């Protein structure tokens, strides 16, 4: 019986966490050939990060091509791309306090306590991967539901809706589940993928499964997403100046 790739990636993760963090280059590889459009990654992410209905970190776009009777549908998950040249960072007016490229782990980070809710980074992202949490679906303080008292774990934070520093009313986006990585767990979207279409790990490690998959397959990145609606969104693939850390096998 073939070993589940989740177990292999878990071993890769343990090996990466044993290294100095600055030598690790986290990346994600998504195979559209294996994605079945079940949206399990979307739902798992929403639960893990305590997201309201109007905030989605990992939508799955349904892209239709061809003409009847030869019509093809591809499913394209889109997390934050964690670019090495992120256009969202230089437009932030907080001088790198609210959104920045971490020198420790290489990810594009957010600090909700410093966010001023200007939305400039939301507009700058060509992937539509940032969303304003408008707090439209939270109950009033006198009627707070128990599930709403959960902490917001992303970016190593333990934000709560009552602390004045939470992501509520601020910008939110995928963190590659950094809080899970620190605890030795793979990102939620990776573990919930029933088609095993998502690979994650350290691409500086040639022995990691993601490195081997990238070597064995032709990969590409997303240049932009003109329309971010999951049912109709169209991803434009090709080399990108933003240098994304999310790669795709088409």
Folded structure, characterized:
- With 250 residues, this protein is of the alpha+beta class.
- It has a single domain, classed as 2-Layer Sandwich (Alpha-Beta Plaits), CATH 3.30.70.20.
- Helices cover 18% and strands 18% of the residues.
- The strands form five sheets. The protein has a three-stranded mixed beta sheet.
- The protein is globular and about 50 Å long.
- The model has no long low-confidence stretch (mean pLDDT 92).
Index terms:
single chain, two-stranded antiparallel sheet, 250 residues, 11 strands, 6 helices, alpha+beta, Alpha-Beta Plaits, 18% helix
Q: Roughly how much helix do the residues carry, as a percent range?
A: 10-25%
Number of strands: 11
Structural class: alpha+beta
**CATH architecture, please?**
2-Layer Sandwich
Mean pLDDT: 92
List the secondary-structure elements in sequence, H or E: HEHEEEEHEEHHEHEEE
CATH topology: Alpha-Beta Plaits
What percentage of amino acids are in beta strands?
Answer: 15-25%
* Count of the domains: 1
Calculate Rg over CA atoms: 18 Å
Shape: globular
Main-sheet strand order equals: 8-1-11
Ranges with pLDDT <50 over ≥5 residues? none
């Amino acid at each position: 019986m073939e070993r589940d790739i989740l177990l292999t990636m878990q071993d890769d993760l343990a090996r990466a966490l044993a290294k100095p963090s600055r030598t690790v280059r986290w990346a994600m590889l998504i195979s559209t050939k294996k994605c079945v459009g079940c949206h399990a990654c979307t739902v798992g992410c929403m639960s893990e990060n305590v997201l309201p209905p109007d905030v989605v970190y990992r939508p799955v776009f349904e892209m239709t091509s061809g003409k009847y009777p030869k019509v093809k549908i591809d499913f394209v998950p889109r997390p934050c791309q964690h670019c090495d040249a992120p256009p969202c960072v230089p437009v932030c007016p907080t001088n790198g306090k609210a959104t920045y490229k971490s020198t420790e782990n290489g990810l594009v980070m957010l600090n909700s306590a410093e966010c001023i809710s200007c939305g400039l980074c939301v507009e700058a992202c060509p992937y539509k991967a940032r969303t304003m949490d408008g707090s439209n679906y939270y109950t009033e303080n006198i009627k707070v539901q128990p599930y709403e008292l959960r902490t917001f774990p992303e970016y190593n934070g333990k934000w709560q809706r009552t602390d004045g520093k939470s992501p509520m009313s601020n910008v939110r986006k995928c963190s590659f589940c950094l809080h899970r990585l620190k605890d030795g767990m793979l990102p939620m979207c990776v573990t919930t993928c029933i088609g095993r279409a998502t690979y994650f790990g350290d691409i500086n490690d040639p022995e990691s499964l993601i490195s081997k998959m990238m070597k064995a397959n032709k990969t590409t990145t997303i240049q932009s997403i003109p329309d971010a609606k999951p049912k109709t969104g169209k991803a434009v693939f090709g080399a990108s100046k933003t240098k994304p850390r999310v790669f795709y096998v088409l």
